[in-house]
Amino acid sequence: DKQVACAVDASRYLTELVAKNSLDDAALQKMRDIEHMGDNVAHDIIEQLNKTFITPFDREDIHALAVEVDDVTDMINTIVNRLKVYRLPSNDEQLARFAAVIEESVRSVACAVKGLRDRKNSKAVREACIEINRLENVGDTLRDEALGKLFERTKDPILVIKWKEVYQDAETVLDICEDVTHVVGSILVKLA
What we know:
The structure is a single chain. The chain has about 190 residues and is mostly helical. About 85% of the residues lie in helices and about 0% in strands. It has six helices and no strands. It has helices spanning about 1-20, 25-50, 60-85, 95-115, 120-155, 155-190. Helix 1 (about 1-20) runs parallel beside helix 3, helix 1 (about 1-20) runs antiparallel to helix 4 and helix 5 packs antiparallel against helix 6. The longest helix has about 35 residues, at about 155-190. About 40% of the residues are buried.
């Protein structure tokens, strides 16, 4: 729950940042702090796995879930870093659309993960997973639209390369959220 809360914080902060025109060092540091907190929680989870004899579900599933959720936070941090390193304005319309979908997907990930605590919540967990899959498809469409507009409107090849990478990273966050659903689905099958 703590780790997925870090991912939700990162996605919420990404949405906030893309509403601004530029990234300052304080904004970048705040995202780094969220990412480091997620890393620390992931390390704590793995450390507890090594110490705990009985776990609520398979150790490898807990480990896989921790790794995937950490990857979500890491990739959101990567997007913010790229904006700063590439000196891109953060208030891009396409990126704002991605940020909204990412935040919605990460919130669904949180619902799915939290729902694993109670076996009676399997319907709600499955519904959250279905929503994450739907949002990943939305992300594919967004990426294609964003790239199409980018290639049509932008003549500077370096700028095209920069934005193309940012848009692909944004879609990758949604892919990782979908990867979380695969782990959650595996856990649900084993608990059934």
